[in-house]
Write a structure and sequence with these properties.
Number of strands: 6
Order of helices and strands: HEHEEHHEHHEEHHHHHH
Strand order of the largest sheet: 1-3-2
Largest sheet: 3 strands, antiparallel
Helix content: 40-55%
Number of helices: 12
Low-confidence stretches: 362-378
Strand content: 5-15%
Mean pLDDT: 83
Radius of gyration: 50 Å
Length: 378
Amino acid sequence: MAAMEEEQQKQMHKGKHDKDKPWDDPSIDHWKVDKFDPSWNESGMLDVSSFSTMFPRHKETYLQDVWPTVRAALREHGIACELNLVEGTMSVSTTKKTRDPYIIVKARDLIKLLSRGVRAPQAIKILDDEMQCDIITIGNLVRNKARFVKRRQHLLGPNNSTLKALEILTGCYILVEGNTVAAMGSFKGLKQVRRIVEDCVQNKMHPIYHIKILMVKRELANDPTLANESWDRFLPSFKKKNVQKKKGKGKEKKPYTPFPPPPQPSKVDKLLESGEYFLSEERKSAKHWQEKQEKQAEKTAESKQKREAAFIPPEEPVVQNENRSTDDNGDVNTLTQSLKEKTKAFKRKSADIVDPHAYITSEDAPSKKKKVKKHSKS
């Protein structure tokens, strides 16, 4: 039935433009980018096309060093380039040798990437047909500068780990600098990078959650059975949680009164109350000087006290003797009693009879001193 309806529709809308086209063949890959052949445009360009862009001053020295390599890369495609240090601009333009009409757009992207901080070896890769670039402006997505810096740091992660993971999963080169994010890669990868960057800066989803989703998609792509099915049931869903903040104690409401508050006294009223209003200028200045001197004296006294506090010696801890016979709370009478007993015992020992013969040397027995002398001589 469906085939019959299609045939009827073709017969109804048949015309000279409804013929089968040679490119309506399923075997042809319409996404494949063929390499440009100079024979397709032998006559060259009819008019000169040029683009220019400005660069920051701190990149001037780097661009001077790298410009010969950039010029050599563009010369192969027939593009002329110029670095103007006076005006701070880079410009590219077509020449008579230019054959590819789209190469001037690639050269424009090249000088844009150089001005955004991309290194020359990486930026020159944009001249390939399969390489595309996208410069995402993120500075105008957040008004608060502190929030902007914090969310931009989420793209980088600790030690640029989040950025490296995004580069591996999307297959794109990503550079976060200033208010822009420069990305280089395929159309599919650039679309993913733009979505991740905008969701991060607008605080819709953290890049870590995007990384988890991309990892799951990479695993599902390897399964041929799921090629024609929806992957929504396999992908993780991250819902934003609205965490309620604790309400602080508000100001106490004062009782309502229909009368307005009394007017506060002005400076003149205060001077009139203190009596300073009627003083002369000399007395006012003298009083002001005296108050200033008093405050200065208080400050000097405080500073002097702080300086002298450093020279006060600390209190030494009292060492208690472990071999004390009495405690601190012991009675003094016990101490005197023990001393008396010790003196009596000492007197008894001294009163004992001493044998004098023990101290008298006999004539037969040689003295110890002589023996020591003989021993020393020998």
